[in-house]
Amino acid sequence: MRRKDRERLLDQLINGVYGPAVLAGLLVWLSSRNLVLAVAVFLACVVSLVLCLRLWRARRDARLRMVSGHALTELSGEAFEEALLAHF
Known about the structure:
By secondary structure, the protein is mostly helical. 86% of the residues lie in helices and 0% in strands.
């Protein structure tokens, strides 16, 4: 997958979680009129997104670190750069 495609996919993922997080906070606020609870629900959604993204990146970096020397010659330019970034 090309870098631009991955960045677009990541943006879609963030927007896909950010919108429901706002909606969940709004629904909690409308049903309970408790602003603190609504903000807590929103922040819980955002924190879960951040944790999921960090886990995804850590797994991707671990997978890139496992690339052997011979396999490096077969990588595309962008994939080679990402493997170097993960390694160093």
